[in-house]
Amino acid sequence: MSSLLRRAHGLCMPSSCYFSRLVNNCFLSKSQTLTRIVHAQLLKVGFIPNTYWQNRCLQLYFKSGSIIDAFKLFDNIPYKNTISWNICLKGMFKNGYLNHALDLFDEMPERDVVSWNTMISGLASCGFPEYGIRVFLDMQRLVIRPTEFTFSILASFVSCVRHGEQIHGNAICSGVSKSNFVVWNSVMDMYRRLGVFEYTLSVFLTMEDRDVISWNSLILCCSDSGNKEFALDQLCLMREMGNQPDEYTVSTVLSICSDLRDLCKGKQAIALCIKMGFFANSIVLGAGIDMFSKCNRLVDSVKLFAQLEKWDLVLCNSLVGSYSWHGFGEDALSVFVLAMRQSVRPDKFTLSSILSSMNVVMLDQGAQVHSLAIKLGFDLDTAVATSLIEMYFKTGSVDSAMGVFATTDGKDLIFWNTVIMGLARNSRAAESLAVFNQLLIHDRGLKPDRVTLMGTLIACCYAGFVKEGIQIFSSMEKTHGVNPGNEHYACIIELLCRAGMINEAKHIADNIPFEPSSHIWEPILSASLDLGDTRLAETVAKRMLESDSEPKSAFPYLVLIKLYEMTLRWENSVRIRYAMNEHKLKSAQGSSKIGIKSSVYSFEADQLQIHGGHDTCSILELLSWDFVDQKIH
Fold first, then answer.
1. Which CATH number is 584's domain given?
2. Could you tell me if residue 363 is left (phi over 0), alpha (psi between -120 and 50 degrees) or otherwise beta?
3. Where are the PPR repeats (predicted)?
4. Which of 17, 200, 308, 562 has the smallest number of Cβ neighbours within 10 A?
5. Do 573 and 595 have their domain in common?
6. Residue 441 to residue 509: CA distance in whole angstroms
7. Three-class HEC string of 231-244
C-alpha cells in the first residue's frame, strides 16, 4: 500500500508539509472532488479548526468553482481574520457574484489595503471601472495609504486622460519611488493606451531605472503614435543602455518592420532573434513570417514556416494569412488542410483568414469551411461571419450571404459595411440601401463611416438612383460627420455622368476643396467621348495628365492619341506615346478565371496561366487537331 493511501486510511499521521503539497496540487488541478477529499482529510486529522487551513480550503473551493461549498465553509469558520474576508471577497468577484461581494465588503469588521485593492480590481473586472475609482476616492477619504498595487490596478483600467493624470499625481504625492517598476511601468502603459505619447515619454525619462517592460512600453507607444522609425531607434538605445530585449520586444519590432515594409531592418531583427534563440517562441516566428510576407518575400515566409518541428496554430494562422494577403487562395487552403491533418484545431482567426482568401471559383471549398465553422461553433463569431459574407458575395452567392446576415446577432460596423458593399457590387442596389436604413435605426448606435457611405453611393451608381445618390452625398458631412474623399466624389460624378448630367458632374469636379485624383475625371472623359464632345474630352484628358496624383492611368493618354490621330496632329500623337512609354503605362487588360475540379485557370490577354492540373495547352492543341480532323472528314 502506498504512503498516500496509508495516510488516507489513518495508518500514519500526515504532516502539515504533506498537506501543503497536497493543497498546491489541488490549486493546479482545480478539481472539486480532490478539494473535497483534502477538506475531509484536514477534518479527520484535526487541522481544520486552524484558521490558516480553513482559509486554504476556502481558496481551493473558490478556485475549483465550488461556490456553495465555499460559502458553507466561510460561514463555519469560527475565528475569521481579515485574510478570510479578503479570500471570500476575491472569490466572489472571480466567480461573478458581484452583489454578494458588495454586501460582504459592507459587512467586513476590518478592512486592510488588500481589501480595498480587491474591491477596486473586482469592480473593474466586472465591467464597472468608474465604481472602482469611487472606491479609491473613499479609500483616500478614510486615509488608507495605497500600495504600489493600488496604483497598478487603477492604471490598468483608466479610460480617460483626466483620471490618468489624477492617478499619476496621487502616485507622486504618495512618495512612490522613481525606481518602482510596477507602478511606473503601469502608468506608462496607461498613457500609451490613452494615446498620450508625450506623457509616456515623460514618465520613462523620470524613472531612475528601467527594465525590459519599460522599454517595451516605450517602443510600443512610439509605434502606436505613428513614430515607427523612432520606435526602432529605441531598440538600439535599449541595448546600448545594457537592457537585453525579450521575445515581446523582438515580436513588436518585427511587427513595426512589417508596417514600414522595411525588409532591411526586418532582416536585422530576424538575425537578432536567431542570435538570442527566440525562434522557439511561436509569436516571434509568426511575426517573422508576417514581416517577410508584408515585404513581398513570401518565399522566405514559407522557408521560416518549414523550419517548424511541430505544427503550431499561431504559425499556421500566420502562413494562411500571408497566402491570403498575397491572393494565393489555393495555397492558403492547402496549408489549412495540412494543419487539420496534423491535428491542429483551427480557431476563429484561422477560419476568418481562410474564408477571406477564397477566390471567385472556390465556392464549394468555401461552403465546406462554412460547415466546419458551424461544427466548431465559430459561425456566430462576428469576424468569421463577416468573412463568410464577404466570401459568398465574392462568389456571387448573394442569398447565402444574406442567410448569414439574418442569423448573426453581434453585428459590428465592419459587418454592416461588408453587407452594404457586397449587395451593391452584386447589383442589389435596393437591398443595399435597405440594409443601410436598417443600420441607421440600429439600437446599438453604430454610425456610418466612409466605407458605409461609399457602399451606398456605389449601389446608387450601379442602379442609376440619381436622386438617392445626390441625397446621400449631400448628407455626408452635415448628417453623418464624414468629409467626402476622392472615392466619394468619383462615385457621385460617375453616377451623374451615367445619367447624362455631364455639366453637373464637371461642376462638382471643378469645386472639389482639395486636389482631386485623376480617377475623378475618368467618368467625365468617358461621357464626353460618348457624346462626341472632343473639345471637352481633350481639356479633361490634359487636366488628368497634369494631375500629380499616383498611380497614373493610361486612359487619358490613349484618348489624346486617338483625338490627335483623328485630327491629323501626328507630332502631338507621337509626343503623347513617348510620354506614355516613359511612365511605363500599358492598356488595361481584361482577365477571367474558371475552376474545373481541383484546378483554377486564369485567362489574361493572350496568356493562359494554370494553377494546378495538367498541361492545358497540350490538351487544347489535341482538341484543335480533333476539330480539324472532323472538318476534313
1. 1.25.40
2. alpha
3. 81-111, 112-146, 211-245, 312-346
4. 17
5. no
6. 33
7. HHHHHHHHHHCCCC
Query: Cell 506615346 appears where?
Result: 577
Q: What is the DSSP string of 256-301?
A: HHHHHT-HHHHHHHHHHHHHHTGGGSHHHHHHHHHHHHHTT-HHHH
Task: Give the Cα-Cα-Cα angle 421, 425, 429 (nearest 5 degrees).
Answer: 80
Whether 552 maps to a domain, the answer reads yes
pLDDT at 593: 64
Domain match, 582 and 598 both: no
Q: At residue 601, what are phi and psi to the nearest 5 degrees?
A: -120, 130
Q: Spell 548-573 as b/e; 16+ CB within 10 A means b.
A: eeeebbebbbbbbbbbbeeeeeeeeb
Q: How confident is the model at residue 233 (pLDDT cuts 50, 70, 90)?
A: very high
Contact 393, 426 (CB under 8 A): yes
* pLDDT digit string, tens, across residues 123-137: 988 888 888 888 998
Rounded Cα gap, residues 412 and 444, in angstroms: 9
For residues 231-256, give the mean pLDDT.
Answer: 92
Gap between the Cα atoms of 434 and 456, Å rounded: 10
Residue 364, SS3? helix
DSSP assignment string, 330-358: HHHHHHHHHHHHTT----HHHHHHHHHT-
Q: In angstroms, how far is CA 454 from the centroid of its own chain?
A: 22
Q: Which helix (H) or strand (E) holds 527?
A: helix 522-530
Pairing of strands 607-611, 591-596: unpaired
Distance of alpha carbon 244 from the chain centroid: 29
Helices 413-425 and 429-440: crossing angle in degrees, nearest 10, is 160
- Helix 212-224 vs helix 197-206: angle between axes, to the nearest 10 degrees? 160
Whether residue 527 sits in one domain with residue 516: yes
- Final residue belonging to a domain, choices 588, 605, 622: 588
Phi, psi dihedral angles at 444 (to 5 degrees): -90, 0
In whole angstroms, what is the distance from residue 611 CA to residue 31 CA?
53
The Cα 401–Cα 265 span in angstroms is 42
What the block records as the C-alpha cell of 549 is 496624383
State whether 576 and 610 are in the same domain: no
Residue 232 to residue 234: CA distance in whole angstroms: 5
Pairwise CA distance, residues 520 & 526, whole Å: 11
pLDDT: is 532 or 592 the higher one?
A: 532
Which residue is listed with cell 484545431?
Answer: 345
Q: Do the domain assignments include residue 551?
A: yes
Do residues 373 and 392 lie in contact, with contact meaning Cβ atoms separated by under 8 Å? no
Taking a C-beta distance cutoff of 8 angstroms, is the pair 357, 329 a contact?
Answer: yes
534 in the same domain as 509: yes
Does 584 share its domain with 595?
A: no
Per-residue pLDDT tens digits for 92-102: 888 888 888 89
Tell me which residue range forms the domain holding 532: 504-588
Is residue 570 in some structural domain? yes
Residue 405: inside a domain, yes or no?
Answer: no
535 alpha carbon, distance to own chain's centre: 50
